């Protein structure tokens, strides 16, 4: 029997993760992480943050399973590690992924450390992914894709370290979402059919544009084609992302897509048609490379993903002018600075990094 603290969000995934561990005979405590609340908006946004409803559901689920619960308040840590990071990259004209940082810094950072201080041997979450134990002293902990490839969340866990993996459990790694809901219904859990939450990580269902306007001033500029012709006006570069089609207000006809941002001249560069060659790149540069396990000699081939749910693409990790770079077998569309690139060997997530820029 292990002493395990389970991260409980109020959703069905974390509820079933706790239920499965309880059935195995472990000593569990459900923990709700309060990372954001109405007060965090300081009256700047007309928005209802559902944390009270989520916590109420966590209490009901824990009562149904028969385990104690508690609340950890990480609002200050979340603001510093996730929200400030989000706005910092947006101001640089990039498109960050706050969920990846939330996982590294909050769920598997602050939560893991506090749980361990209180005597927990492990933490557990409802993520769809697998952790494989080392087979020998020379081996290392591996992070693998979930059996349900449509629900696999390894992409969002790509920055986890060995110390975090060895103290973490993912009970849902071999389950499909439909199976998880069936287990919840059979057990009579109160959130068996609760809809999945959407929005910005823990912040909730708020429009991204409205959220950005909390701290980023609108600075209009020109929308120009790749040949330099002005065809419209944008509201401010942080409010757009590479590959975006909607929201440009450029009229009918063949749609335009954003291909890059000119920060120096405050211009949004667009190309016409989803197959425009300006949308595609042969590779990308990474700011750095995080190895989940052992570093590998370069160059080396991987299956690569540049956004969540993208089909894996063959590519090669190598060094170009001293920088980590990924060169693809086939050109990729909409490579976006600030997003994460994940590198897989089979089902194992081997390495990852933040995209610096595309390679033409």
Secondary structure elements and pairings:
Layout: E1 3-7, H1 12-23, E2 27-34, H2 51-65, E3 69-73, H3 75-91, H4 98-117, E4 122-124, E5 129-132, E6 142-145, H5 162-165, E7 168-169, H6 177-187, H7 208-212, E8 221-225, E9 230-234, E10 256-262, E11 267-272, E12 280-286, E13 290-291, E14 300-305, E15 313-320, E16 323-333, E17 340-345, E18 348-359
Descriptive account of the structure:
The longest helix is centred in the N-terminal third of the chain and has 20 residues, at 98-117. Strands 12-16-15-14-17-18 form a 6-stranded antiparallel beta barrel. Strands 3-2-1-4-7 form a 5-stranded parallel beta sheet, sandwiched between helices. α1 packs across α6 and α3 (75-91) packs antiparallel against α4 (98-117). The chain is of the alpha/beta class and 360 residues long. α2 links the parallel β2 (27-34) and β3 (69-73). The mean pLDDT is 93. Helices cover 23% and strands 29% of the residues. The chain has helices at 12-23, 51-65, 75-91, 98-117, 162-165, 177-187, 208-212; strands at 3-7, 27-34, 69-73, 122-124, 129-132, 142-145, 168-169, 221-225, 230-234, 256-262, 267-272, 280-286, 290-291, 300-305, 313-320, 323-333, 340-345, 348-359. The chain contains 7 helices and 18 strands. The relative contact order is 0.13. The radius of gyration is 22 Å and the shape is globular. The protein folds into 3 domains: 3-208, Rossmann fold; 217-274, Adenine nucleotide alpha hydrolases-like domains (SH3 type barrels, Roll), CATH 2.30.30.280; 279-359, Translation factors (Elongation Factor Tu (Ef-tu), domain 3).
């Amino acid at each position: 029997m292990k002493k395990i603290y389970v991260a409980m969000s109020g959703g069905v995934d974390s509820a079933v993760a706790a239920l499965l561990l309880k059935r195995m005979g472990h000593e569990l405590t459900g923990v709700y992480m309060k990372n954001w609340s109405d007060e965090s908006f300081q009256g700047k946004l007309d928005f209802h943050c559902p944390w009270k409803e989520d916590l109420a559901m966590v209490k009901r689920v824990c009562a149904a399973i028969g385990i104690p619960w508690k609340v950890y308040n990480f609002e200050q840590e979340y603001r510093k590690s996730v929200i400030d990071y989000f706005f910092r990259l947006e101001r640089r004209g990039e498109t960050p992924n706050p969920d990846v940082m939330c996982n590294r810094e909050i769920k598997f950072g602050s939560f893991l450390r506090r749980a361990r201080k209180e005597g927990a041997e492990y933490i557990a979450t409802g993520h769809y992914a697998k952790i494989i134990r080392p087979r020998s002293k020379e081996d290392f902990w591996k992070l693998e894709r979930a059996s349900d490839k449509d629900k696999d969340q390894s992409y969002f866990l790509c920055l986890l370290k060995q110390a975090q993996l060895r103290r973490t459990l993912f009970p849902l790694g071999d389950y499909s979402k439909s199976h998880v809901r069936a287990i919840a219904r059979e057990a009579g859990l109160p959130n068996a059919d609760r809809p999945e939450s959407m929005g910005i990580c823990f912040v909730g269902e708020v429009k991204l544009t409205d959220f950005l306007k909390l701290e980023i001033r609108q600075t209009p500029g020109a929308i120009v084609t790749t040949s330099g012709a002005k065809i419209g006006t944008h509201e401010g570069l942080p409010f757009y992302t590479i590959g975006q089609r909607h929201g440009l207000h450029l009229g009918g006809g063949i749609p335009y897509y954003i291909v890059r941002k000119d920060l120096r001249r405050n211009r949004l560069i667009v190309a016409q048609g989803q197959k425009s060659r300006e949308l595609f790149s042969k590779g990308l540069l990474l700011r750095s490379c995080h190895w989940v396990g052992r570093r590998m000699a370069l160059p080396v081939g991987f299956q690569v993903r540049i956004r969540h749910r993208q089909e894996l693409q063959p590519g090669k990790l190598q060094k170009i002018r001293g920088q980590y770079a990924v060169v693809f077998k086939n050109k990729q569309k909409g490579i976006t600075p600030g997003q994460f690139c994940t590198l897989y060997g089979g089902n194992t997530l081997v390495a990852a990094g933040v995209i610096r820029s595309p390679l033409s």
